């Protein structure tokens, strides 16, 4: 993992077309802006994990239903 220090207004670039902007720092909270093409999905980590967990749960539930039908 790359760890960088940035101040408000400074940026980080990922590749040629994704820019991360530090917009505000208040205590332990950092607000960032992300400029990226619409074709790139941007999602918070905890939401991504929730989606993965829900998808796994749905598959297990469907497998259980299929087993009961046999």
UniProtKB/TrEMBL annotation:
Top-level taxon of origin: Bacteria
The organism of origin for this protein: Ureibacillus chungkukjangi
Regions crossing the membrane: none
Gene Ontology MF term list: mRNA 5'-UTR binding
Protein's job: A translational regulator that binds mRNA to regulate translation initiation and/or mRNA stability. Usually binds in the 5'-UTR at or near the Shine-Dalgarno sequence preventing ribosome-binding, thus repressing translation. Its main target seems to be the major flagellin gene, while its function is anatagonized by FliW.
Compartments, record wording: Cytoplasm
UniProt family annotation: Belongs to the CsrA/RsmA family.
Name of this chain's protein: Translational regulator CsrA
Gene behind the chain: csrA
HAMAP family referenced in this protein's UniProt entry, alphabetically: CsrA (MF_00167)
